Amino acid sequence: MSTTTSGPWTPDGGGAGRRGARAALAAALVTALVAVTAACGVTRGDDSADMDMWIPNSPGGGYDQTGRAAVGVLDRGDITGGDLQVTNILGAGGSVAMSRLMGEEGNERLMMTLGLGVVGSTYSFGVDARPHDATPLAQLIEEQEGVLVPADSPFRTIDDLVAAWEKDPGSVVVGGGSSPGGPDHLFPMQLAKATGVDPKQVRYVSYDGGGPLTSALLGNKIQVGFSGLAEFEGQIAAGELRVLAVSGEERVAEDVLADVPTLTESGIDLVFTNWRGVIAPPGISEERRAELIEQLTRMHDSPEWQHALTDNGWTDAFVTGDDFEQFLRDEDERVSTTLKELDLL
Amino acid sequence: MENLGLLADGLAAALTPVNLLYAAVGVLLGTFVGVLPGIGPAMAIALLLPVTFGLEPTQAFIMFAGLYYGGMYGGSTTSILLNTPGESASVMTALEGNLMARAGRGAQALATAAIGSFVAGTIGTLLVAMFAPALADVAVEIGAPSYFALMVLALVMTTTVLGASPLRGFLSLFVGLTIGLVGLDLNTGQPRLTFGVTQLTDRLDIVVVAVGIFALGEALWVAAHLRRKPARVVPVGQPWLGRDDWRRSWKPWLRGTAYGFPFGALPAGGAELPTFLSYVTERRLARRTRRGAKGREAALRTDEFGKGAIEGVAGPEAANNASAAGMLVPMLALGLPVTATASVMLSALQGYGIQPGPQLMTDHADMVWTLLASLLVGNLLLLVLNLPLAPLWAKLLRIPRPQLYAGIIFFACLGAYATNLDPFDIGLLLLFGLLGLAMRRFGLPVLPLILGVILGPLMETKLREALTISGGDPAILWSEPLAIAIYAVLLLVLASRPLLSRWRARAEAQTVDGTDDDTDGRADGDGERAAAGTEGDQR
């Protein structure tokens, strides 16, 4: 169609109306573009030190909170020497972001936040991208999981739960805030195995995060919940939920949880922690890797980061470079073993 | 009453000039962001979090409140004008809203959306202020069986919208249900219909499906016919709501609020189901009114559904905003993040050292009441800002078609891309655009497909959750009072259908008195006269 057509679709009135409409469209587009750029946090000069931080799940999720906290500290301390842009890459529990990161080989301007859930999701979503094959930079934090029950639950200790499981694994309905392969799913399965119960018999209901899981517990829809504890402290302090055990090596320091025993104290040989860290794409130079690790170390040592840890109830667990790579390998092994035992792989 | 006093204190705190400014900034940003498909309120708040670090918590929350309601409202603008819903909650608005816009009633559609959002948001916020703790206690008792019963109800109601040919309607519905199956099985982790494509392992985004089928399909259809058919000129309507518009809008606003608020307050309620239920209710009521009305009245009030009925915009828009308000119930009363937006807000709270939980409303009462008050203020600001803009926005449609549709396609692609910055999503959008074109070509109604995509996964998740809890025993499905009540109503209505229609036939034969009681029967959710509708539904 030729551009000079001025035929039947010209609205009545002609010129003035069309100019008005054009202006309106232009205004709309400008608005849209402004919103997009503002929304992405882009303030691009041509500073070559600018970097991207990918977050493999949605805003408000765990990786998002950790990733944005880290970026905030890096930014305010001007540690990277450039702007940092945060991008949430959703999909397949983090494995979309993971496989895209593997495709960014050699990109030295990119980092990604990840955690145990991403490792699990690469398996359950059948993605052949192992985090330890990228460039592991640093583990930042860890978070203990807890075994939660409603206040009026007949389970007083973790032994009560184990006893009920031993009697009939199918009689206890448990739930968690992650889909199969995620931390809240792996934890009860490994707990069952550690106590001699067949993980395949465990009846697990997956909820879409901590909120729906809490309401299922409060409404007595399920008997036991497995989850990281940060989202539940309010409920625990109010006495609405009780914690039977925490999964770390040591007790949680915070007041509300100080009386809760670890699994090992209760005679169960299992330590399980959810962790989060930062990796870079594969194939970046040794110097760049060292530089990024050094920047993250400076971030970790800053008072702002320590403050962020306290605010969010995260446990400091800073491991860098080769040690982190080995850690990722071990985790990968552990996750795949558990999923294989469940016939999920 | 004590609560009202506290709310008044909150209002006093929110109405300082500085706080008003933050509310206005929040509302404006929220509207802009909501207009963009792909960037929802949750993303907007997450992005603005760093900006608010310097602010006091109260002010930060005032801004968030504005963003939240602004974002919910902004989605309706593109739905109505460009047929590109920005989020799943405004998919229903696009149906009648865009038809109205193309019939030259865009300003009215935008106005009824703005006022409906205001009414629903205000009522919803007041309900939160008065009853949040009590409602929250009830809401956690609602489990998977009740949700499933609600879905069954909704599915039965979809038969209302199957269109002229039941066969085509069901075909479309099943295509939608199939699209809803794509992705990872949540219970076993098995991929279904993903063909080895990683991006498909997540369920398909309803917004991409809807925008592809509505906007892109439409654009392709128009392009295919551009030279063969004379272009329809979008008539210029009057810019304001007429008296008849008001008369037809106020009831849908209230009914939409009644649907939306309880769903928002439920931990897994969401906004899709209430907007859909509201749409279907309005549609059925419109049909009944037409049948029930007599003489002059009947001539005036033909059922406009399928041609751009204002009720179909007023109801869903109110439902969508009421559910946004309802979401505050679990968030404030229990500290539960039931939506992405709520979890961003709650993590912001934690950033200020405030622990969300059941004590939030008592320990930080002043902040909570200021937040509620600023929601009311933000809502009013939203109305004041958007009502005058409605006629202006509506002029957008007078852009010549090639340029207009180019703009729509650009906008749709931008939205699909912005969610994940992944070109794959644009490919997906194009695919659904082609599907939309094909459906138009072969006369398949698109609405049942969209409903299948929305309802299918929800229904499956709840059914399987219930059955996992019971160990496979179907008796759990009627184990909750609410579920029983819903099934009972459904059965009653379905069973009484033949009786009712016979009675109605007799009543119509007599035609003596005007007390036709089915003009007001809003409780029935049967699929009666399911596919018998004659109105063209080929959208």
Characterization of this structure:
The complex is a heterodimer of chains A (345) and B (539). Chain A has 345 residues and is of the alpha/beta class. Chain A is built from eleven helices and ten strands. Chain A has helices spanning 15-40, 62-76, 95-102, 116-124, 158-167, 183-194, 210-218, 233-237, 286-301, 303-312, 321-341; strands at 51-55, 84-88, 110-115, 135-150, 173-176, 203-206, 224-228, 241-246, 273-280, 315-320. In chain A, strands 1, 2, 3, 4, 5, 6, 7, 8, 9 and 10 form a ten-stranded mixed β-sheet that branches. In chain A, helix 4 packs across helix 11 (321-341). Chain A is globular. In chain A, 48% of the residues are buried. The model of chain A is unreliable at 1-45 (pLDDT under 50). In chain B, strand 1 (183-184) and strand 2 form a beta hairpin. Chain B contains 20 helices and two strands. Chain B is mostly helical and 539 residues long. The chains are: A alpha/beta (345), B mainly alpha (539).
Keywords, please?
heterodimer, A: 345 residues, alpha/beta, D-Maltodextrin-Binding Protein, domain 2, 2 domains, ten-stranded mixed β-sheet, 10 strands, disordered N terminus, B: 539 residues, mainly alpha, 2 strands
